[in-house]
Write a structure and sequence with these properties.
single chain, alpha+beta
Length: 95
């Protein structure tokens, strides 16, 4: 199953994230294909309802996606990745 997430390089994500992962219901899901300006495709673990929360950076359950992980995957420094993230992205800061 493939899902579409309304985030892409227009939001400051690098197109080099193809093959990296996001979190859906605490499970790692691979980013498929090239990121579009306003969308990315991910491999889903099964059918999910529209509006299911996807964590691009951060923790969901026991899993976590970090800037360091993205940096290792893409070859960019973590700060290079973070400064490109724009104001359209929803941020939830927690301890």
């Amino acid at each position: 199953m493939v899902g579409t997430i309304p985030l892409g390089y227009g939001d400051g994500l690098t197109r080099r994230l193809t093959g990296a992962e996001v979190l859906v219901n605490g499970q790692r899901c691979q980013i498929l294909g090239k990121l579009a300006m306003d969308a990315m495709m991910i491999r889903l673990p099964g059918p999910l309802p529209l509006g299911t929360k996807v964590t691009v950076l951060g923790r969901d359950g026991d899993e976590e996606i970090t800037l360091d992980e993205w940096a290792n995957f893409t070859g960019f420094a973590p700060w290079e990745l973070s400064i490109n993230l724009n104001d359209r992205l929803i941020r939830e800061i927690s301890d």
